[in-house]
Amino acid sequence: MDMFLYVHFILLYISLRRIILNRIDGHSNHRNERKRKEKKEDKKNRNKKKVEKPIKEKPVKQEKIKKSHPFLKLIGDIILILIITIIVLGVLFYQKMEENGGGVQGALCTIFGQSVENLDKLEPINVLVLGVSEDIGAELSDTIIVCNYDPQSQKLVMLSIPRDTFVGKSPEAAKGSDKINSVYSKKDPTKTLKTVNTITGLNIKYYAIVKNTSLINIVDILGGIDFEVPIDMDYDDPTQDLHIHLSKGMQRINGAKAEQLLRFRHNNDKTSYPSSYGDNDFGRMKTQRNFIKETIRQTLKLNNIPKARIIFNSIMENVETNIDKDMIFSYIPKAATFDTENIVSLQLPGESAKFNELWFFNYFKKETQKLIQENFSK
Fold it and tell me: Which of 4, 119, 293, 357 sees the fewest Cβ atoms within 10 Å?
């Protein structure tokens, strides 16, 4: 297939080159011939004037003869070759897509240079997703989600870890920096990775960091997300230049609104999500997981397949990750057939606790291990 494509382009190049040279030579010969005729005619008229007396004749209107310009023909030939090339490439793409199983999965295998045989060999993968705030003088990981994707069972588990989770050595000597969101360092995100592995007992190797500005860009790249805002949100924090004003109900969420939605905890009057939903941080984490779920569902639409590579490249420009691009390519065709109903949304087991006059989230170790064993694919 690749050799056929190569030969096709060689033949197209030779044909196009020959046409261009022929047109240029033809145009040059045509111009020289015309000059010779004009010169000969001019000489003949001068000789005739010497012999005959000039006779006044009525000017005869000559019909203009439209001549096709050689370069117009050249452009037409080039367009024809381009059309033929597009048709040939379309046929080749369709053949390759059918070899990869056809449909959405086959199309994406072809776009991202994968083979359908390798899809069945893909293993479950764990990725730590960090949402980082940049507008408070220091970069803190205010969103921490462990994602476990099993391409064979087509199951995605999202486990939220509260940003106030206590990770210090001694509750009696607890301080503000003992919260997990303070562990993040823009120079070494693996510190948070190591801490999360200690909490979960997993061996997570990969991370993906999305900062405030990157989140806005990604959502706008996708053209916005239709999402049902669970409650009216009205909050202002001048110190962070954070202003959240969203109405309850279904609406199109663009990048700027997405940042407001995902950072909201409570209103100016201290009211928050209802307890049945999960108030403050718990409600925010649930909204974050729901928004991610809806983003996945709406991104995996058929009309996005032709521009899948463009979307992917644009998103990757806004995400910091240690996952190799080729590895991501290998999972995309399988993930494209994913059903968002197979998403399991979880939260780290635990409760709020006061250590050394400071409030933390104290996670339950045994319940956490049980939750991981029951839900995460290895």
Answer: 357
pLDDT of residue 297: 86
Task: Quickly state the pLDDT bin for 322 (edges 50, 70, 90).
Answer: very high
Radius of gyration of the chain (CA): 34
Task: Annotate 290-353 with DSSP letters as a single string.
Answer: HHHHHHHHHHT-GGGSTTHHHHHHHHHTT-EE-S-HHHHHHHHHHHTT--GGGEEEEE--EEEE
Ranges of each domain in the chain: 1-30+68-99, 125-375
**Would you tell me which CATH number, out of the four given (3.40.50.300, 3.40.630.10, 3.40.630.190, 1.10.10.10), belongs to the domain 125-375?**
3.40.630.190
Q: 32 by DSSP, 3-state: which?
A: helix
Q: What is the pTM of this model?
A: 0.71
- 306 vs 232 pLDDT, higher one: 232
| Separation of alpha carbons 236 and 323, rounded Å | 36
Query: 207 forms bridges with which residues in the sheet?
Result: 128
- Pick the more confident residue, 138 or 354: 354
Alpha helices in the chain (DSSP H): 2-51, 70-99, 103-111, 116-119, 190-200, 212-221, 255-263, 280-299, 308-316, 325-335, 365-375
- Strands 242-246 and 233-237 come out as antiparallel
Average pLDDT over residues 299-303: 74
CA angle (360 as vertex; 359, 362 as ends), nearest 5? 140
Q: What is the pLDDT of residue 314?
A: 85
Residue among 199, 269, 271, 192 nearest 230 (CA): 271
